[in-house]
Amino acid sequence: MSKPYIICVDDQREVLAALKKDLNFFASHFRIEECESTAEADEILNELDADGTHISLVVCDHIMPGETGIDFLARLSADNRFVAVKKMLLTGLATHEDTIRAINNASIDFYISKPWDSEALIHSIKILLTRFIVGSDLDFQDFIPILDQQTLYKELRNKN
Amino acid sequence: MSSEQDNLKWLIDNYFSDPNRWIQVRAGSVVMEQGRENQRLYLVRSGRLQGSLTTEDGDVEYVLTAGKDNFVGVYSFFSRTYLSLYTVTAVTDCELAWIDKNQPTIASEEAQSIEKQFMPVVVQDLVSRQQRMLEISQDKERTFRKLVEHQRLASLGQMAAGIAHELNNAIAVLDHNTRWLVEQVTRRWKQPQELAIFEAGLLQGRFLSTRDIRENKRQLQKNLKVSEEQIALLAETGLPRETLENAVNKLKMSAAEIYSAWEMGASLKDMLMAAEQSAHVVRSIKTLGAQHKERNTALNLNETIENALSLLHHRFKNIETKLQLNPLPGITGNIGDFVQVWTNLFKNALEAMAANPLRPSHLSISSILENNTIRITVTDNGPGIPADLLPNIFQPNVTTKKEGLSFGLGLGLTIVERIVTSYHGKIEAHSDSGGTTFTILIPTGV
């Protein structure tokens, strides 16, 4: 079985590189794919979906040339194929209105502002990935080292 | 003829037609003085007069002007106080006709008293005073608002300067220590090949796009016999296939080692660029806050335009530039201020035009003197500013640029507007899909 994917979208390569260093924590169990635009992310998402590969999480910047992160994540939320994908917004600048829209329309699971704290980022992603794994047809036993134990316990109890 | 004009004609013919009561007044002489006795009602036969009021604070407000067929002294005459409200001075040489308080009523069909006959004149006088007062209060309101705006910008500038100072220290620490790390890491590699990989990261940085990296992975998979994870790491470096093959097969370096050496270089490069970018941000913020610059140089705006062009000459290589600089009078100011205005505008234009690489780039710059105002236009044929952004382009943080570490700060036009305003000038932008024109108006009196 191929590893589930984590997709990162940010138009700045330097930021992607910094983000990737943190996400390396999950590299043992997840494939990390980077994109410089939402259009590029669309291509990857379509490809992976066509192959039946699991997509666990999208981490996306907000302000980019072209489509904004919130618009992109809202589009994913409205797409049946990607409803289950966890969505995280990572941004240096978002207005109050952006934030409201993010919560109301984009079903964003987590919001992190730049510059971010590595430990906090990893912890939040652990929680999101745990929820994703439990909600999917994957066996959580295979992912134990990178899951958040508390969340896992809670999610499993709710599920049963 | 309206009845009003009929009435005026009747008044003039009957009350003001005696040449013995016509007087000549030289320009500059005072006809009546505020608070002093005035027993006369004047009709202006020719010339122009001005009424002014000195307030308790000693400010002088101009409250009326009177020309041919206007009356002066209406209040003192008809209020029967015979005291003048204003000081009335002849602006040009004038001829005035007058009557005084001993003037007998000349009977007419419609009205028996002089007050009734002059009623339309009195009403007209009241109305124009009221209008003038309204204008004065509106003027004051506008001046007050401008003052508040200036104050707001000034305190924003001071705050910006303070922040800039604080950040400079932090940036200096990051920049110097990064440079030191570069030296140290450079010395520590044992193998020359490791050093070469590190230096590739340091010098070239992340030149591959994420798309390129995926393509690179596909290529490397055909040539290198290592796992998919290892290919992913190697692909990111963008190192030539031979270098990678050599490192893996001959030097027995693991993919993780190669990637780590390259990534150290690339990360240090990112840090240096980030420090440089931050320093650039701080410089821009400082300019925003700078107010203490000397402005005592006689300068010609055409020269400042040429200065800015020569500063940016390396970026004008493939740009067709049309200059139409007409002779301009000198103004007093700071050369750096204007060079900065033009460089910011030219840079914006260049970057806008670069966004449309298929269309040949045309930039036209013109200067001309019109009615004591210097008008300078900068027109590009870029894709234009989106209509929803256009009203806000002079606000900080508004940018159309966002690319790598050279992303726009959104301060360029804010700085331009501040400088232009500080010379009592104006800046306007017009933009559509065919391009953008900035028009700068600078009064020559500054």
Task: Describe the fold and architecture.
The complex is a heterodimer of chains A (about 160) and B (about 450). Chain A has helices at about 15-25, 40-50, 70-75, 95-105, 120-135, 150-160, and strands spanning about 5-10, 30-35, 55-60, 85-90, 110-115. Chain A has about 160 residues and is α/β, with parallel strands linked by helices. Chain A has one domain (about 5-115): Response regulator (Rossmann fold, 3-Layer(aba) Sandwich). Chain A has a 5-stranded parallel β-sheet with strand order 2-1-3-4-5, with helices on both faces. In chain A, α5 (about 120-135) runs parallel beside α6 (about 150-160). The two termini of chain A are about 25 Å apart. Chain B has about 450 residues and is an alpha+beta fold. Chain B is about 50% helix and about 20% strand. Chain B contains 11 helices and 15 strands. Chain B has helices at about 5-15, 75-80, 115-190, 190-205, 210-225, 230-235, 240-250, 255-290, 300-310, 335-355, 410-420; strands at about 20-25, 30, 40-45, 50-55, 60-65, 70, 85-90, 95-100, 295-300, 320-325, 330-335, 360-370, 375-380, 425-430, 435-445. In chain B, the strands form 4 sheets. Chain B has a 5-stranded mixed β-sheet, covered by helices on one side. Chain B is rod-shaped, with a radius of gyration of 37 Å. The chains are: A alpha/beta (about 160), B alpha+beta (about 450). The interface of A and B includes residues 12, 17 and 34 of A.
